[in-house]
Amino acid sequence: MLKNKMFKKTLLGLATLGLMGGAIAKDLPTEQAILTSPPEVPPAIERDHNAKVVVELETVEKVGTMADGVEYVYWSFGGTVPGSFIRVKEGDEIEFHLSNHPSSKMPHNIDLHAVTGPGGGATSSFTAPGHTSTFAFKALNPGLYVYHCATAPVGMHIANGMYGLILVEPKEGLPKVDREYYVMQGDFYTKGKYGEPGLQPFDMEKAINEHADYVVFNGAVGSLTGDKSLKAEVGETVRLYVGNGGPNLVSSFHVIGEIFDKVYVEGGNLVNENIQTTLVPAGGSAIVEFKVEVPGNLILVDHSIFRAFNKGALGMLSVKGKEDKTIYSGKIDDRIYLPEGSAVQSVDKKVEVVKASNKKEKIDFGKRIYDANCMACHQPNGQGIPGAFPPVAKSDYLNADPVRGIEAIVHGLEGPIKVNGESFNSVMPAMDLTDEQIANVLTYVLNSWDNKGGEITVEQVKKVRANKPH
Ligand SMILES: [Cu+2]
């Protein structure tokens, strides 16, 4: 969306470099801030002295995509939601230029929580369309800070996407990590309910009542899934700069399948260790760090969990590399549990030995696989849950090409799909089942609940398994 500003550095007062501590602005070397669009973060600051950092940020109002088929007029800092990431060093002096694009309908300003001064800069940065305001501040306190528009009605400017993060690195810098990403949550309020297509206007009443239709990371449903997933490799350390623009909701930030080795609580100096879920207040932040030890998809969520699966607060960090079965084994065994004491059967082992010898047996065995592995999401009669899990009953998606079912189970399925006229954009994890079990469960599904019938063979499953997911 936004081009990164080129890195430009001009040393003005080289002679004064030695006495940075008390230097006044005009004696500091001047450099242009590198700004990045989410989820990218500007590079760590290498210099060991302070600088005068020039930040040029533009407010833009433009139509963007909130979800598949849903559009929204975002108000933004730098053309993205959240706005451009700003990175400076404790003690730097920031010369801030806020420009409001001539096409804007509204005046805007900026309140940076990193500023010590009235309104966090808001009182000096009120900018009409087609104007630029300039003010300066000294970054006295290190930390990860939210910035946002504070023009009335403040709630509406924030609800439309006017927030971002500014990192003030401590004097000694932050420990080196392999990957850094920028993730910021926000809640949105639209006239239509979640997923209702078309250009959706802001709904003030829902915003006042805090009835969010969308709760998302980085401004839209799916901005961190599929092709846009964050990436890392096994053995790497990852640091997430997590912000919450609100306007209303507090985030219970969690990464499914990881434990935060370190959390810089609320973006400050206090470091907590071994954390599962960290609170990120509206208008606040947290820095989380973890090492990725095993491959797979880690899922970023707001653990107020309906927001994740029904309102969009779901992202993905895709980790590639070698498995380590001592850390995570994958499913080793699945047995039928019969507390009443009947002979214990093993679905995995014995049923596999006693292979289904005809279609009827396939269907019988398949039902057990379905009940144990699929029912929790797709529901007892395959009816699914609207907005979350698509129906596998009378599914036009599946019936059009049953191989799609094999692909979903073997490789997992994510991204937008349409089933019986309803859109879904969620994640089905790859299921750890044998070829035989997959053939059985899909044969069961195809012969249940008004599906078109037919039979899936082990050979078909093998073929799909041999192909990489597309
Ligand atoms: Cu504004």
Summary tags:
single chain; 470 residues; alpha+beta; 7-stranded mixed β-sheet; 6-stranded mixed β-sheet; 32% strand; elongated; disordered N terminus; binds copper (II) ion
How is this structure best described in words?
The chain is of the alpha+beta class and 470 residues long. Helix content is 16%, strand content 32%. The chain has 10 helices and 24 strands. Strands 1, 2, 3, 4, 6, 8 and 12 form a 7-stranded mixed beta sheet that branches. Strand 23 and strand 24 form a beta hairpin. The N terminus is likely disordered. The structure holds copper (II) ion.
Bound molecules: copper (II) ion
How is the biggest beta sheet arranged? 7 strands, mixed
Tell me the number of strands: 24
End-to-end distance, in Å? 25 Å
Question: Count the helices. How many?
Answer: 10
What's the gist of this structure?
The chain has 470 residues and is α+β, with helices and mostly antiparallel strands. The chain has helices spanning 154-159, 204-209, 306-310, 350-353, 359-373, 375-378, 396-400, 403-411, 435-446, 458-466; strands at residues 9-10, 30-32, 52-67, 70-77, 86-89, 93-100, 111-112, 132-138, 143-148, 163-169, 179-188, 198-199, 214-217, 230-233, 237-246, 251-256, 260-264, 271-275, 277-280, 284-291, 296-302, 314-320, 413-419, 422-428.
